[in-house]
Write a structure and sequence with these properties.
CATH topology: Glutaredoxin
Protein name: Thioredoxin family protein
CATH class: Alpha Beta
Domain Thioredoxin: 9-144
Structural class: alpha+beta
Number of helices: 6
Order of helices and strands: EEEHEHHEHEHEEEHE
Pfam family, one: AhpC-TSA
Largest sheet: 5 strands, mixed
Number of domains: 1
Distance between the termini: 22 Å
Number of strands: 10
Strand order of the largest sheet: 6-5-4-8-9
InterPro entries: AhpC/TSA, PRX-like1, Thioredoxin-like_sf, Thioredoxin_domain
Length: 186
Amino acid sequence: MVSLETPVCDFGQPAPDFSLPGVDGNTWTRDRCKGPNGLLVMFICNHCPYVQAVRERIVRDARELADLGIGSVAIMSNDPADYPEDSFEHMQQVAAEYGFPFPYLLDESQAVAKAYGAVCTPDFFGYNADLGLQYRGRLDASRKEAAPADMRRDLFLGMKQVAETGQGPAEQIPSVGCSIKWRDEA
């Protein structure tokens, strides 16, 4: 398992559009997921210990961000042929078990992850109301184990600032996680 760190935020980079199937049976687009004050795009999966450690916190933060006008969406781009835990059926189970308050989408072709430049799970992309990138950092200090509950909520606070001002924090700490499991390009 390769652990990777996300690159520095490229402020203002536009959010690529997408149209992907959700575990709820609907097709979701970027604009359908967006809230009036912005959009949080999360690349996650089921099997990654970094994601497993923070699922409850992701749900908590997405719920609280919705109250601030930030829409959220989670996208799974791993190749489930090599990682059966990341299959669409398992995505449905995880979304139901954790009560995901956001669409959980399958990027089967991996084109959306490539368009965003996603590198790991979890990888967070926070956009303002104009869909310009303002946050590309970590959720909090968690790694393969959840950090103490009283740790600084980097993602939430960064996106709260985006909701209120349209601008993300100048200082951001990269997210760390498992590499996206890319298909072999034959």
